Amino acid sequence: MTERQFPKWSELKPLLRAKPIELDPTTRRLDRALSILDLRRAAKRRTPRSVFDYTDGAADAEISLRRARTLFRNLELRPSILQDVSAVDTTTTMLGRPAAVPFSFAPTGFTRLMHHEGESAVVRVAGRRGIPYALSTMGTTSIEDVAAASPEARKWFQLYVWKDRAAGEDLMARAKAAGYEALQLTVDVPVAGARLRDVRNGFSIPPALTVKTVLDAGMHPAWWMNLLTTKPLTFASLSAWDGTVAELLDQLFDPSMTLADLEWLRASWDGPLIIKGIQTVEDARRVVEAGADAVVLSNHGGRQLDRAPVPLRLLPDVAEAVDGRAELWMDTGILTGADIVAALALGADATMVGRAYLYGLMAGGERGVDRAAEILTREVARTMALLGVSSVDELGPQHVRLP
């Protein structure tokens, strides 16, 4: 029979360690977030439904996005044991220059709707952490203001080709004058995808004060207060817009653009050129032969053509076809550092993340973006160590098995 005794105070005292009380609600919220999905849940609580759904949603039935995330979930990581991983190096190169981690912050539209600090918050985190950042044509902070927010950050400008080519030339000239390192041409938006969540929510730019949105304001007073009491939304590339996102894209963007138009673009931009939105091996070859410095396998986060190819599935074949003639990056579906490591092992030189840092932005502004970057960086380093590799260059197809 087990003998029992009451513990003495001297034995209990070392176990009673009071946790400091954190008074700042944003700090409490971010400290509880241990993963990007935790940040997503916090973001959903903090922002109006239409804004959250604009970020979180995809096109049509959202099959492309689900397939991308399902492939990441179902792949198998294959570790090599008894390797020296006492020091793990997450650095890599992007466009021939060092990057602290093997991912960049992807361009996202209307970012100040997610949080009033918007693109300025993102680029400040990028500058501190050595992460390249691409400003979207549809961003809500000007090219010049983003440059001023973090002079030390590596900044790229993402371009959609407009029907008004003179406007595109002006954007490239402004980006060059402001010190942007590279141009990222997005090629998978000849017309807007059918983003049904936005239609059902009546999502518009700027948000319209309807009965529905007024009721929603009662659930998210801080978001609405920040929107209404800070600087009015301005755009990286146009003065104003009053309508839906799809209407804006269809009004501005040129569906007649072809590969031959890269000559027009090169006449205005002589720096590194990134082509984003490649979804076949054949198109990867074409844009590399046309002079792309980097190719991004992407289906726009599932936001354009539903049932599009899954970029991760394409990686090995495209890596073989490109054969080092250009850098190969990928996005779509990335929510963990393990996802990033898997992409690198299958042939990507680097990756891009969008929703991941936007969830952080919605959850806690600049501190939330920093938390997202911290989570991903730690997950990348931990996954590499558990796989038995100490540098990005050691990753290879032997470390991943796709279903």
From TrEMBL:
Glyoxylate binds at residues 54, 160, 195, 300, 303. The active site is at residue 300. PROSITE patterns: FMN_HYDROXY_ACID_DH_1, FMN_HYDROXY_ACID_DH_2. It comes from the Bacteria. GO terms for molecular function: FMN binding; oxidoreductase activity, acting on CH-OH group of donors. Keywords: Flavoprotein, FMN, Oxidoreductase. FMN binds at residues 107-109, 136, 158, 186, 276, 298, 354-355. The keyword Phosphoprotein does not apply. Its cofactor is FMN. Residues 28-403 form the FMN hydroxy acid dehydrogenase domain. This is Alpha-hydroxy-acid oxidizing protein. It comes from Actinotalea soli.
